[in-house]
Amino acid sequence: MYDRLGGMAFFEALTERFYAGVEADPLLRPLYPEDLGPSRRHLCLFLAQFWGGPRAYEDERGHPQLRARHLPFRVGPEERDHWLAHMSAAVEAAGLSALDNAQLMGYFRASAAHMVNTAS
Fold first, then answer.
1. Is residue 90 one of the residues assigned to a domain?
2. What 3-state DSSP class applies to 25?
3. Helices 77-92 and 98-115: crossing angle, nearest 10°?
4. What would the 3-class secondary structure string for 78-110 be?
5. Range of 41's domain?
6. pLDDT at site 64
7. What is the CATH number of the domain that holds 34?
8. For residues 43 and 109, what is the distance between their CA atoms, to the nearest angstrom?
9. At 78, phi and psi to the nearest 5?
10. What is the mean pLDDT of the chain?
11. 73 in a structural domain
């Protein structure tokens, strides 16, 4: 899927759109470090690798361990929904085929639900 979507350029653009939403979100922004650059890079590399691109994320950071990496942060249903809204908007803006959109969003919905670590 990595190549079909346009390779690294697709994931860079997707990540930029997503973080533009996060940056303006009063609920999510405090969960991120002041400098969003490293977080943006990590997400981009992770997504590219997950969808069949280069293994740069794993080379730099080791196994993704998504849930473990997010446990220090309070992620409840409201944070999940905000995160998913920004990612949904970023994916929608890409103008993908219905199949590619559905595959990406299926993954993002499941991942967002998996990161929830508190009930409120």
1. yes
2. coil
3. 160
4. HHHHHHHHHHHHHHHCCCCCHHHHHHHHHHHHH
5. 2-115
6. 85
7. 1.10.490.10
8. 16
9. -70, -45
10. 96
11. yes
